[in-house]
Structure formats: C-alpha cells, structure tokens
Write a structure and sequence with these properties.
Order of helices and strands of chain A: HHHEEEEEEEEEE
Order of helices and strands of chain B: HH
Number of strands of chain B: 0
Number of helices of chain A: 3
Structural class of chain A: alpha+beta
Shape of chain B: rod-shaped
Number of strands of chain A: 10
Helix content of chain B: over 70%
Mean pLDDT of chain B: 88
Low-confidence stretches of chain B: none
Radius of gyration of chain A: 29 Å
Oligomer: heterodimer
Strand content of chain A: 25-35%
Distance between the termini of chain A: 83 Å
Radius of gyration of chain B: 19 Å
Strand content of chain B: under 5%
Number of helices of chain B: 2
Largest sheet of chain A: 6 strands, antiparallel
Distance between the termini of chain B: 18 Å
Structural class of chain B: mainly alpha
Strand order of the largest sheet of chain A: 1-10-9-4-3-2
Chain lengths: ~160, ~80
C-alpha cells in the first residue's frame, strides 16, 4: 500500500478547488482584457502616426521607363517609392501614361491591366478599377488605387510623388 | 427580518451587482474589439486618420470599465 505524504495529510485540498475562479475574480480579470484591448488600439494608433509621418517625407524621384518602351495598351511593373512597393505603369493612349500602386485596396493582391476594357483588374476577388483615376468600378474594394505622379523628362518617364 | 434572511438578501443583492457589472464589462469589451478591428483595417488600408479616434473611444471604454469595477471592490469591502 502506498504511503500518504505528510503534507497531503495536513493540506487535503483537491486540485479542482485549488483552481476555482470566483465570479468576482472573473469580473476583475475582464478589466485586464479591456486594458489589453485599449493598449493594442493605442499601439496601432502610434504605428499609424509613424507610418503617416514616413509617407509625408519627401519622396524620391525615380526613372521608371523610356517613353517608347511601352506599347499603347501595355503595362509594366516598377517599384516606387521603395523596393517593397510595386506599382503599375500603364499607357492607355498614345500620349498618355498613368501609374498606380499595384496592391489591390481590398486584400493586397496585385492588379493587372486589361487593355480591352481599359480597366485595372484584381483576379483574387474580381475587383475592377478605372484606369483614368484608379477609382473602384466593381467588386469588393472600397478605396481607389493610390495614384503615382509621373513626369516626362525628354524621352524618360519619372515617378515624382504620390497623389 | 431574521439575520439569516438579511444575510441571504444581501448575498442576492451582491450577486445581482456582480452580474450587472459583468454584463456591462462584456459589452464594453465587445465594443473595444470592434474598434480594434476598425483600427486594424485602417492601419492595413492606409487610413490612419481613423485610428486616433478608435484609440480614444477604446480608452474611454477602459475608464468606464475601471469605474464599474469600483462597485465590485466596494461590495467586497462591505461584506
């Protein structure tokens, strides 16, 4: 027969009782949940402010293509302002070039250009954007694509900022 | 009223208080979670303007939660 330890004999508290949480304690713990949620929200607000400050800084000027490099109705990807920011340069007409951020404003899938319909198209959830100004034409996205400002310098096209 | 009945009545009153506070706190936390999802959506979507407001309202919810929990402490002291 196994010998019962002395301390168990003196403190016969069951395991379940030891972890019993009263309503009062549970209610108090809800305040900590509330605090944690507030802190998470505040951290996001601070991060958002830092991100906006970074966006407000002067953007670099980058050469993105030569004028004749792109056919009418064609498109090509470039990165602006950083290497992690893919953008789409489109030539909808002979003398016109437009550029937009390539990440769909719904869930960040890359958008493509469809020359036949003159629309930017997100294949993930069937989102459509107008190539003229990047506004949403159809699908789940709720915000327009961010527009990149272009400047023509002789035979070169330069990205000079975000609209 | 007998002391036993009085004790029972006080206990019932305390339970009602705890449940009321609990329901209010859960409602406040639900609102805070909704605000957090709005803030996260704003952060990921580049709409940073909305996040200060959500943080402010979330802070107010937390203050309200602290104000409510005061009743639990007070009833604990009385008993």
């Amino acid at each position: 027969m196994p010998e019962v330890q002395t301390w168990k004999d003196h403190f016969p508290i069951a395991w379940v009782d030891d972890h019993f949480v009263t309503r009062r304690e549970f209610t108090k713990s809800l305040v900590w949940v509330s605090l944690a949620t507030f802190v998470a929200n505040a951290v996001l607000a601070v991060l958002g402010r830092l991100k906006r400050r970074g966006d407000d800084e002067t953007l670099p000027q980058v050469q993105v293509a030569m004028v004749d490099e792109l056919q009418v109705g064609g498109a090509r990807v470039f990165y602006y302002p950083g290497v992690d920011d893919p953008c789409l340069l489109v030539r909808p007409d002979t003398d016109r070039y437009v550029a937009f951020g390539q990440k769909c404003t719904h869930l960040g899938c890359p958008v493509n250009y469809r020359a036949a319909t003159r629309r930017l198209y997100c294949p993930c959830h069937e989102g459509f954007f107008d190539v003229e100004d990047g506004r949403v034409l159809a699908g789940p996205p709720s915000r327009p694509l961010p527009r990149i400002e272009l400047e023509r310098r002789g035979a070169e096209l330069w990205a000079v900022g975000k609209a | 009223m007998t002391p036993e009945r009085q004790l029972r009545a006080e206990r019932a009153q305390q339970m009602a208080l705890i449940y009321t506070v609990m329901v209010c706190l859960v409602s406040l936390i639900t609102v805070q979670f909704l605000l957090l999802t709005v803030a996260l959506e704003g952060y990921l979507g580049g709409r940073t303007g909305v996040m200060s407001s959500t943080a402010l309202v979330s802070g107010l919810c937390f203050v309200a939660a602290c104000w409510l929990i005061r009743y639990i402490f007070l009833s604990g002291r009385r008993s």
